[in-house]
Amino acid sequence: MLQQDDTKLEIFGFGDDADDNFYCLVNTRKCPEGIDLEKLSSADPRKFDKALNEMGCILLLRGDELEELIDRGVITDSDLHTSIYELAVQEGIIE
Length: 95
Fold this sequence. Notes:
Oligomer: single chain
Strand content: 15-25%
Distance between the termini: 5 Å
Number of helices: 4
Helix content: 25-40%
Number of strands: 3
Order of helices and strands: EEHHEHH
Shape: globular
């Protein structure tokens, strides 16, 4: 199983609002440098998921999705990396 130390949480935005932020749990074994935003922005929109997968993306949440999970108590904002990693394990995304 992929350990938390083999992941990192990257936060990036494509707009001015908090909802325009994206929270990406990245497999650093697969892609130590993480998400390449320049490469991602030039990816074919029809193959966006494939591009994210190739860059090691395990789980991608929009800002509004993250806020909903925090509001429901599924994750905590005190340690997002740990909370999102544990959610991915709990949901079977990381086995």
